[in-house]
Amino acid sequence: MDYIQIGFTKKTHGIAGELKFFIEEPYEDIFLEKDRIFLEIRGNKQPFFVESVRGAGDLIVKLEDIKVREDALLLQSKPVFLPASEIPEDLDLTELEAEYAGLTGYLLTDQSTGDIGHVQELLEMPQQEMAVVLYQGKEVLIPLNALFIVEVDHAGRKVLMDLPEGLLEL
Q1: Which pLDDT tens digit goes with each residue over 77-136?
Q2: What is the DSSP letter of 85?
Q3: Residue at a domain's end among 52, 87, 122
């Protein structure tokens, strides 16, 4: 079965097992109609049933069988997918393509450390743009500098970087 990534999970919300979700704008209405989504866990797409959705911007989602914060922590920063067969063929992706100029949702990988995490948001600083990434349970700012970026794979939504040693520990 083919899948399309429509967004990613962010941080947990509260203590009842809720998660914040970022869903790409063209897919929001489709996501809100679905009672089942897929999260990529250890390279496999696993189904989760949506119990409730609330909020605007970052959606706050309650998944069935995720009752406590500790269970939700295991689902942070995971890509969210829907089967390609459930996405209408006439969906207007022009807005989505424009967002690809930014890297929100892309998986950041360091050549020596490996996968760091998904870009939660982009911050415009006076000197440069910074990517906010959840790494080992804490938010880390990664400079989006051409000196550090080895490759950007827009199709795979990945950024390969060669980060200075010690940057992730700051």
Answers
A1: 888 999 989 988 777 665 444 333 468 888 999 998 899 999 888 776 666 678 889 888
A2: G
A3: 87
Whole-number average pLDDT of the chain = 85
Strands annotated E in the chain: 3-13, 18-23, 36-41, 44-54, 59-63, 79-83, 107-110, 114-124, 129-135, 138-143, 149-153, 158-161
CA–CA gap between residue 26 and residue 45 (Å, rounded): 21
- Which is it for strands 107-110 and 158-161: parallel, antiparallel or unpaired? parallel
Specify the residue for token string 């919300």.
13
Based on its alpha-carbon atoms, the radius of gyration of the chain, rounded to whole angstroms, reads 16
Residue 121 lies in a domain: yes
CA dist 79 and 4 (Å) reads 10
Stated pTM of the model: 0.60
What is the pairing mode between strands 3-13 and 18-23?
antiparallel
Same domain, 114 and 50: no
User: In the beta sheet, which residues pair with residue 6?
Assistant: none
In sequence order, what are the beta bridge partners of 121?
Answer: 132
Most distant CA atoms of the chain, gap in Å: 46
Judge contact between 128 and 30, C-beta under 8 A: no
Same domain as 8, residue 63: yes
